[in-house]
# Entry
Amino acid sequence: MLFLPLAALAQKQYELPTAESQEDEKDRPMIEVYLPKEELANGCAVVLCPGGAMRWLSWESDVVKMAAFLNEHGIAAIGLRYHLNKAPMPQGMNMPPMVDVTHPEAFPQADANPMHNESGDSIIRLAAKDAKAAIRMVREHADEWHVSKEKIGFLGFSAGGGVAIAATMSAVGMERPDFLCTNFGPSLMPVTITEDAPPLLIMTRAEHPNVAAGLVALFMEWKKAGANAELHIYGDGKGPYELMPLTGETTTEAWSSHMLQWLKAKGFIGRK
# Structure
């Protein structure tokens, strides 16, 4: 059995330029920087977009623990605190029917958001701006943090995957990620993909209503555009998951190993 690394400690915190002065300090978008030992650094950096239904952030599992794992493999980890929806939950709204993995056509343009409304959509757009600002900030500090400017991308979990996808859709220049990984995080907005879209890695469990179908739809949008995409659908367990020890008892637990292999195959980390 492989044991999980100890939680990492952030070395630096930076407020993002998308923060507003009237916002409470705890709500202002920021990044936490977790750097590997200099002798291990391979030049790759991953901006971690934690999940939490756009209303909270699963920071411990999706950032702190994940950063320790990435640092162990020479990858700089950048935890992103993005704008969240502070509005009360809408009253009287009926949840749409659950869609299983066999019906990706239920989500045109891979939009798997179950409840669009003006407030929620505006927060997604704000969070996407935060994510783009995080990519830009990593590039601006690339030399200082021993990061290659051509090896910076996203790993999003759940709603954080939706934030990373939305950011990628509108990013240009310094804000454009070099790769996009999403872990059970479908798009929360309609997507328009071009052939030069960053390579995409999708991971999810088949038994995750709406999410799995939404991610199959996302994969199809990438492929229809002629862009590079890879999809891993795990057949054991239901719903979300996090970094897991390798026991050999499930296939889902290997998702982090599959991600590392994908990053190696794409040339973002070394093939040692």
User: Anything to note?
Assistant: The chain is about 25% helix and 20% strand. The chain has one domain: 24-85+100-265.
